[in-house]
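Data card: per-record layout.
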Amino acid sequence: MAKHDSQLDILFTALGDPTRREILTRLARGPATVSELHNAHDGSKDMALPSFMGHLKKLEEAGLITSEKRGRVRSCRLNPGAFSPVQSWLETQRTLWSERLDRFDDYVTNLMKERKNGTGPKD
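The structure for this 123-residue chain is written out next.
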């Protein structure tokens, strides 16, 4: 993976907003119309529809959702495959930190054994 991945930046930016995460959580249950999503949104009374549409646009630009317009109704659905780069990055980080913490645990365990045997460094 590249040191700087612009697709990851786009995905994490889209995921970084609580309104957008709420939309994704709702769409994980199945497709929904824009009106259904807006009405289900906790802050729908505080957020005008054009602002809410901006969140949907950000999610669609990131590839996390797709939308389709039939007549006057726009429906949205989750694009689960778009999460793959995030999942891969997180797995890489989990593996890296797990290995580092295992080495640190080994170090501390050996240090404690040495101190107990009187062969390690003193405080």
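Known properties of this structure: The chain has two domains: 6-79, 83-117. Helices lie at 6-15, 18-27, 34-40, 49-61, 84-117.

See the next section for split statistics.
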